[in-house]
Amino acid sequence: MSELMQLTVSGVFTGMLYALLALGFVVVVKGSGVINFSQGEVVVLGAFVMSWLLTDVGMPFWLGIPTTVVVMMLVGAGIERFALRPLQNESMLALVMATIALGSVIRGLVPMIWGDGLRSIPSLIDQRRYEWLGIAIPTITFWSAIMVLILLGAFGFFFSRSRLGLAMQAVSDDRVAAQSLGINIRLVNAVSWAMAGGIAALAGFVWGSLLGVDHRLVVLGALIFPVVILGGLESIVGAVIGGIAVGLVESLSAGYLNDDLGAGFSTVAPLIMLLLVLFVRPYGLFGRPEIERV
Amino acid sequence: MALIAMETGRFHEKYSEEIAVYGTPYRKIWILAVLVVTFVVIPLVASPYWLVVLTLVGIAAVGATGLNVLVGYAGQISLGHAAFAAIGAYTSGLLVSRAEAPFWVAVPVAMVAAGVFSLIFGLASLRVKGLYLAIATLAAQYIVQWILTSWTWITGGFQGIVIFEPIQIGPFDTTTPMGKYLMVFISLALVVVFVENLMRSRSGRAMIAVRDQDIAAAGSAVSPLHYKLLAFFISSAIAGLSGVLYGYNAGLVSTEVFTLALSVQYLAMILVGGLGSIPGSILGAGFITMLPLWLRDLLPAVGIELSASVEVHLLTLLFGVAILLFLVLEPRGLYGLFRNIKDYFRMWPFSY
Amino acid sequence: MKRKTAKGVSLALGLALFATACGGDDGGDGSEGASGEDIVIGVAGARVGAIANVGEGVGEAVTDWFEMVNANGGINGRKVKIEEIETKYEVPPALEAFARFQQSNAVLVAVEGTATSDALTPVSEQSKIPIMFPGQGNLETVDGEAFPYAFPAGPLYAHQATAMVQQQVEELGTDISIGCVAWEPPPGREYCAGVKDATDDLGAEFAGEVVIPAAAADLDAQVRDTVALDADVVLHAAIFGQAVLLLKGLCDQAPDLPVGAWHWAITQNEIKGAGAECMEGKFGTSMSTLPSDDPEAVQMLRDYWEESGTDPNPVLDENSLYGNGLYIAVVIEEAIRQALEIVGDDGEVTGEVMKQALESIEDYEGYGVTCPITITEKDHSGNRALNIYQIRDGGWDRIGECVTGPPVTDEPDVS
Questions:
Q1: What is the ipTM of this complex?
Q2: B328: contact with A, CB 8 A cutoff
């Protein structure tokens, strides 16, 4: 029983961190409709910038974290400006290919700047894990989950209340109609990518603290998809629920199924879930079922 | 001589002309020339080293041509073609080594297996509009890699090694660079003929119709799901063939070979070479396979010494940059560039 | 029209078959080291990718060593040319690199990593150029009759496991239980199979196996499973980032648990990554004498650098896998020396001669770097002995010298 509790609790908390990864993806879909295959790489870049500023440059946390967020927002806006805007009238195929290409660019660029070795992010809190009633949670995971909740609240508010947020919703609904209403599509696109960059900086901090900073973090990019397919490609609430579901599936299958189905089943369990969801409900739990079946 | 310069444009007046293999007499000469160079000149003059390199290009070209059926003609993206290549390679390797099937049984079965396996992912994602296939195939990539490393009862042992018995028929012997080269390029020729014919058929045109206007296609009694699945099946089966060729070329396959990076390389090949073009797939495969060699050999020649690791990362970066540049500047890829140059001379001196 | 196409194709194919018949044996004449010329050795580098750490150590050490050998007049007057081509630990580049080595008339190719050494095994046989991959690779390759051109020439993963168990049993007695953490890609599984064999053999208890999936980023569940094995000692076969994560997790959840590793996981990378405090007391195997023990080979290099005024290679101190590179280098040197014994100092060295030469290496201790190596026509393993090091005060302390564990069940019989 206590094992089940432990697995459930760590699943839920890790799931919040998956939600953070997925949030950057969802924001881009909301703002520009692009399925971004490079969010994993952008997170890796964020983690490297963070690690570099905090260790090599020696910035304190209160300066290093915001600086990284700003740098990554600029990177995001830059990606939109130089890689995607030239393609804005092309097919979705071209845009998606461009994000795959961007992934390749970042994968090459990062080790050229920072080398192949494993880097680290200094720990913000000395204590490494909290324990209540025999259930242990890494400190960083716990506080990150809290941060994710606050962020989600902020984004929820932004998209439902602020002018720019509503404009972004409108653009993702119908680009042409939004444009004819005088919404500045370029601005909306740029803002959504900048947000994705900023979120990636935070995700890079969290995941880099947990796992160390190196190219392996790219693997996380693949886990974005089960989250957003389950939650709906452009739903913020969906990202959280999807994230928690993925966290639970992974944690529980690691606990109970790995021995029977082959070691490492937990790493593909979320992907199998992704396929099942596609079969049953391709627009996800919180997506709008207007996806056309053809 | 004057007559040769007369071809100033190509205009089809009848459907039979539209679907003819040789649009112009020159096309026939071109095809013959390519065949002669591939199967006579190169085998006679190339050194073993170049045969090895060209063999790798040919294997990549088979995979890229397959992927182009999906991306170029059906407008869908697959990030799992390396996984389908793995299915092909393992199926044929196991059939030959465990069931002692002859290769001419094992290879077609392997291709069908790769195609059928891919349909699981196609059925999940192609029913809805949009690029969900890219997501489902990304999952396929990870799932297949997991199966190969953890189900040792399939792959036979911790190393997951499956040995490919060489094919030896008379003088044809796949243990020599020459035999490998011929095996790969004969396969490539067959694939090219097949895909070229596919595109002249109803099925090929239906795929393009679905890519360009799915609703209109559905209205013309062309089922989008059916043709997207068909394109995906064919594309994955050809990827399976490239996996088989890979196995015969190396002599064995192991689990760590068919990675996501390979899937992305296939995409880079067709984008750089030219979407929806067979010569483009081959050019792209050549370009992406040889780029590392050129970088390695030419940079030191012009006095730039890069460390091995910088060179490799630079390549990864260049793949991405090349895709982006071609997307923005010349979406028809290298073959498009080639056509532009050719058209310029064909139209010369009237550039309209 | 169609019939003409068919005719054209069949004509071309006919000519092609003719070409095969004429040129089919082109592949064979690649491996000639003409008399008196430099002897070319290929190194299929892996400085980038999954095993970058190993690639760096090996690449640097082999290059440094033969630079020194050549500066001192070569081996019996013959210079050695090292040609390193990066493969990123991927197979197609490795095949291309091998063809290039063949074109350069290389007589031996050193390979790093199991995937690439496996992939080059068939071509090495086809082209009769031996490949050598100490400390890694597939257990089957110890059988020289089944794989005549593949030379592990050093302890494989399973040997590293049995030696580790042997040493633990010697130290703690048979009344212990040993758990194993396998890195999912093949080598790790082979390692844990070795641990199980050795515990059975020596009368200790095997507490069970936990597998780390190759693609896993987060190892929390695996760390918990490992702790739950409730073993007295845990041995692991993780590498690099995953090793660091595993070690960190174990330090966190079971700080007093003794943890041992194979030779790729007690390097500076782990000490830096998991923290010196965490790594204190951890132990592991090494096929070579570590550079920090200053074996004769390292002294020779340092002397050479001092005399020639070259800057010492920083990798020697920064990456303990430099020791693995020295192991490879000194074995190559000995093989060349044996080859020149066979064909004479000005004779023509070929791949086949190098195979014979490797197979005549006997009780070779490689300037203090290797445990005694003997390679025979049947047994290509070279040796199955490992040094065992423990991390103390951030450095390495040798606690076992050339330890050999019990024989491994799955190993082909080569006696």
A1: 0.85
A2: yes
